[in-house]
């Protein structure tokens, strides 16, 4: 891939002199959904698919962007002196947002750049193509300009950019999982204080399979911010009765004891998901440590039911993928992953059942939804790197 993107860089920008190639992964969250902005735990891993980039420094303040995924848009130009979010700027708002955030954090970018990107994450799939781009750009800025930032800093700057430049009120999980990825490990992250441990994922005789619904979704215009607001209101109501910083501070029993403080039944459901999902995530990591993959799978299934019934972020596409997966012998667990409202499911499937899984689920999905789902057998990879 390195040779491919450097060759394309030369074609697009005249030559490839001074250009370097980079990679940042996508991510999938194994369990712990919509907990990251509620002070709970998440359990994501980086993937071996992601975003490739080639970049070089210019002598002026100009920014030139090109994406092989949107090559019909051609080269999109901007300037370091004009870093603002614009609808017509499209996908370039993500790299521009990271540059803006670096400047806001006190890292002055001395000169413009030519940047070419090529991602093999399906767009709008919920595997964090936007966070992958953000971490990649942060890593490129660090490498070219010698900024003293850790990969964890790059994650936080990426989140800051998405929140404050692009207006998506996302939590830290996506950028953190991508920036801190480790091969064959998932990250058990406490989003309340960013403490984390790596947990080895030993899937002897099984694989992770991503099913992409091909229903496009945009986080900014989805109900994501609405769910976040409902949880914040529920938290404020609970805080009048009990001293907690986030919904993730509550056990199931404590929640049941104090849930009467929440004045609206819909908010009760939203908060219940946040509390129970956090506890499920803790149990799931313990199950993996005990080599109890069957329990891990059951907790994945319970996670989906909660996201469907209490958080109401699944929709017919994701529900169909998961419910059909549950019918296939050899499926250990299956759930939606990501923000929901389209995007992907993640399933733990025994090796010998993978062909039957893709065939049966694919056929049922096409019959019910009217268009195809795509399936990816994925591996867990490292964080960003220079190629």
Largest sheet: 6 strands, mixed
User: What is the number of E strands?
Assistant: 13
The strand line-up of the biggest sheet is: 5-4-6-3-1-13
Give the distance, in angstroms, between the N- and C-terminal Cα atoms: 9 Å
- Under the CATH scheme, the architecture of the domain at 2-200 is 2-Layer Sandwich
Q: Quickly name the level 1 CATH class of the domain at 2-200.
A: Alpha Beta
As for the CATH topology of the domain at 2-200, it is Ribosomal Protein S5, domain 2
Explain how this protein is built.
The chain has 387 residues and is an alpha+beta fold. The protein has a domain at 2-200: 2-Layer Sandwich (Ribosomal Protein S5, domain 2). The chain has eleven helices and 13 strands. The strands form three sheets. The protein has a six-stranded mixed beta sheet with strand order 5-4-6-3-1-13. The protein starts with a helix and ends with a strand. The mean pLDDT is 94.
Helix and strand topology:
Layout: H1 2-13, E1 20-29, E2 41-42, E3 44-57, E4 62-67, E5 76-79, H2 93-104, E6 113-119, H3 129-145, H4 151-164, H5 173-179, E7 185-190, E8 195-200, E9 206-212, H6 224-239, H7 252-258, H8 265-289, H9 293-309, H10 315-326, E10 331-337, E11 344-350, H11 354-369, E12 374-378, E13 385-386
Parallel strand pairs: 4-6
Antiparallel strand pairs: 1-3, 1-13, 2-7, 3-6, 4-5, 7-8, 9-11, 9-12, 10-11
């Amino acid at each position: 891939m390195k040779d491919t993107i450097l060759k394309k860089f030369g074609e697009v920008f005249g030559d490839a002199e001074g250009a370097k190639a980079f990679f940042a992964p996508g991510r999938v969250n194994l369990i712990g959904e919509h907990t990251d902005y509620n002070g709970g735990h998440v359990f994501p891993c980086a993937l071996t698919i992601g975003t490739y980039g080639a970049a070089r420094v210019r002598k002026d303040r100009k920014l030139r962007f090109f994406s092989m995924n949107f090559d019909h848009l051609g080269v999109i130009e901007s300037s370091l002196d004009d870093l603002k979010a614009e609808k017509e700027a499209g996908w370039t708002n993500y790299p521009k947002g990271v540059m803006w955030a670096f400047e806001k954090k006190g890292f002055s970018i001395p000169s413009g750049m030519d940047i070419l990107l090529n991602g093999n994450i399906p767009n709008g799939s919920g595997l964090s193509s936007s966070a992958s781009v953000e971490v990649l750009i942060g890593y490129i800025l660090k490498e070219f300009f010698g900024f003293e930032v850790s990969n964890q800093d790059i994650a936080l700057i990426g989140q800051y950019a998405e929140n404050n430049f692009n207006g998506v009120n996302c939590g830290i999980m996506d950028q953190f999982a991508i920036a801190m990825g480790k091969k064959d490990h998932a990250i058990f992250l406490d989003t309340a204080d960013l403490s984390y441990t790596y947990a080895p994922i030993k899937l002897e005789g099984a694989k992770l399979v991503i099913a992409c619904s091909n229903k496009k979704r945009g986080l900014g215009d989805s109900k994501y911010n609405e769910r976040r607001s409902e949880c914040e209101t529920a938290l404020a109501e609970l805080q009048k009765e009990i001293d907690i910083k986030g919904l993730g501070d509550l056990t199931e029993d404590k929640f049941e004891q104090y849930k009467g403080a929440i004045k609206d039944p819909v908010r009760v459901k939203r908060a219940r998901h946040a509390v129970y999902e956090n506890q499920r995530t803790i149990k799931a990591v313990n199950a993996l440590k005990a080599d109890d993959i069957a329990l891990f799978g059951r907790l994945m299934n319970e996670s989906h039911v909660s996201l469907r019934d209490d958080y109401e972020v699944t929709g017919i596409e994701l529900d169909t993928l998961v419910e059909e997966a549950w019918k296939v012998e050899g499926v250990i667990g299956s759930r939606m992953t990501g923000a929901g409202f389209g995007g992907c499911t993640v399933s733990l499937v025994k090796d010998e059942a993978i062909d039957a899984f893709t065939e049966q689920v694919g056929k049922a999905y096409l019959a019910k939804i009217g268009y195809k789902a795509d399936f990816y057998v994925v591996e867990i990879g490292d964080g960003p790197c220079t190629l």
